[in-house]
Amino acid sequence: MRVKHLAIITAALATTVVVTARADSINNYVVLQYLESSGTQAIDTGVKFGGNTRMSFRMQVVNGATGGQIGAIDKLGTDGKHDRFHFNVNNGLMRVWCDRQDGGCPSASSEGGTWHDYDINLAKDRVYRDGVQDIAQITTSGNAYVGTVNEHSTIWLFGRNSNLGSAGISYATVRLGNVEIWQDGQLDSPNRRLFPCMRLSDNVLGMYDTVTV
Questions:
Q1: pLDDT given at position 115
Q2: CA-CA-CA-CA torsion for 138, 143, 147, 152, nearest 10 degrees?
Q3: DSSP per residue, 162-210
Q4: Gap between the Cα atoms of 132 and 84, Å rounded
Q5: Three-state DSSP class for 151?
Q6: pTM, full prediction
Q7: Of the residues 171, 178, 189, 193, which has the fewest C-beta atoms closer than 10 A?
Q8: Exposure on the CB side of residue 67, measured as CA atoms within 13 A
C-alpha cells in the first residue's frame, strides 16, 4: 500500500501524543495502533460534513476526559441555532450529535478505557457501535441541516472545527485508530481512509490517507 498523503498533527505539539508499539512498516512510515491526544491537538481531514455524511472510526475515550468535542459545528441561518456533526466527550462517555440544534437523539455511551468501533451514517440516519445499532435515529423531521456541504466547516479529528472561531473550537482527549469518512455516505468509496502513523525521517505523527493524492 502506497502512502499518498499525510495529515500532520501540528509539529510543535506532536511530542505530547502517545505512540503505541509499531504495528507495521510501509515505505518511510510506521503504522501505529492508535494516536492519543492530550486535549490540545487536532487534525483537519479536509472533508466538509453534509446531510449524507458517514464517518467510521475506532476510538477509546481516555478515563477522566471531560468537556471535549470531535467533528464540526457551524452557526447558520437566522434562528441562532447550529448545524452539528460532532461527538461530545464528557466524564468518560461519548455522545453523538449529528443534527440541527435541538433536534434528533444523542447516541450515548463509550465507557472510558474501552475501545469501540463507531459507524455514524447520516445517509441511513443511523449510529452503529460495535456493529449494533445504537439508537433509533439521528435526525428528526424538521431538524435537517440549514447549510449546504460547501457552507459547512471541515471535520476535525481530536477536536471540533467551527465557523464561530475560538468560540466553537474544542479539543478532546481520546485515542483514535483507523478512520474512514464519506462526504456522501450513499457512495461506496470513502473520501478519506486514514491510519495513525509516524514518519520515520523525522518522527512526525499524523494520519496517512490512502485515498487522496
A1: 87
A2: -30
A3: ETTGGGT-EE--EEEEEEEEESSTTSSS-SEEEEEEEETTT--EEEEES
A4: 23
A5: helix
A6: 0.83
A7: 189
A8: 3
Single-letter residue type at 99: D
Place of cell 443511523: 126
Residue 72 pairs in a beta bridge with 85, 161
- Which amino acid makes up residue 92? G
82-97: pLDDT as tens digits = 888 988 887 767 778 8
Measured between alpha carbons, how far is 106 from 60 in angstroms, rounded to an integer?
A: 18
How far is it, in rounded angstroms, from Cα 52 to Cα 49? 8
Q: How far apart are CA 98 and CA 151, in angstroms?
A: 16
Please give the average per-residue pLDDT across 1-25, as a whole number.
39
- If 0-12 CB within 10 Å is exposed, 13-18 middle and 19+ buried, where does residue 11 land? exposed
CA distance 40 to 31: 22
How far from the centroid of its chain's Cα atoms is residue 46's Cα? 11
- Widest distance between CA atoms in the chain: 51
Structural domains of the chain, with CATH: 39-189 (2.60.120.200)
Give me the residues paired with residue 48 across strands: 154
Task: Give how far the C-alpha of residue 68 lies from the chain's centroid of Cα atoms, to the nearest Å.
Answer: 12
Q: Any bridge partners for residue 100, and if so which?
A: 83
